[in-house]
Amino acid sequence: MLPYTLSLTVSSIVIGTVIGIPLGIASALHRNRFIDYATRVFSLIGFSFPVFYAGIMLILIFAVWLPWFPVMSSSLDGSFLEKLRGLVLPATAGSLGLIAMITRASRSSLLDVMGDDYIRTARAKGLTERTVLYRHALRNALIPVVTVIGLYFALIIGNSVLIETVFTRPGLGSLIIGSLDNRDYPMVQGLLVAYAAIVIVTNILTDLTYSIIDPRIGRA
């Protein structure tokens, strides 16, 4: 069951990162313009939707009204593409909050970094705005984003109980629900220990990522 929960979690993180960082960059580069306002409204909506409600709405729109994806992603068999289709809606439901968090974190961090002295020095050297943004500013602005991703990884692991229940998907979350129904408390305790271990490993990997992004942190 662990691979199903991890695949859901990692997919949600990937979707949230791929969408959230570009939205945050666009919002920071177009501060107080239409793109900035639209992005901030979108992130506010992402914060406001509970994950189970987002899952129900995604099923209603993209599985019932528009039959693009399966209503339930409970199939353990089938081809890789079929499993991938069944993963799209659950992963999207889990990523909405992360998109909002990364968008705000990357926007705020990038705005702070763009006002630093070394950015003005890079511009004075004649570097293009693209080079200044992607080679100098963005890398230093990623520290808060990595923190958000690490925190949300633990959150989405917890939300897997709701997501797997809504989408009738196998995983640790659905196993917890089944164990509670059967009053199998030793199984519940073991699953909670597994959740705690995943959170600990995630925090360690987050700290290691800090030193990769900024080597000064590793030497501190």
Question: How much helix is in the residues?
Answer: over 70%
Distance between the termini: 39 Å
Gyration radius, in Å: 20 Å
Report the CATH C-level class.
Answer: Mainly Alpha
H/E element order:
HHHHHHHHH
Largest sheet, strands/sense/barrel: none
Number of strands: 0
CATH superfamily heading: MetI-like
- Architecture in CATH? Orthogonal Bundle
Number of helices: 9
- Assign the structural class, choosing from mainly alpha, mainly beta, alpha/beta, alpha+beta, or little secondary structure: mainly alpha
Q: Average pLDDT value? A: 85
Say what the CATH topology is: MetI-like fold
Low-confidence stretches: none
Strand content: under 5%
**The number of domains:** 1
Q: What's the shape?
A: globular
How do the helices and strands line up, and which of them pair or pack?
Layout: H1 2-29, H2 34-48, H3 51-65, H4 80-114, H5 117-124, H6 129-166, H7 172-181, H8 185-213, H9 215-219
Helix pairs in contact: 1-2, 1-4, 1-6, 2-4, 3-4, 3-6, 4-6, 5-6, 6-7, 6-8, 7-8
How would you describe this protein?
The chain has nine helices and no strands. The protein is mainly alpha-helical. Helices cover 83% and strands 0% of the residues. The chain is globular, with a radius of gyration of 20 Å. The protein has helices at 2-29, 34-48, 51-65, 80-114, 117-124, 129-166, 172-181, 185-213, 215-219.
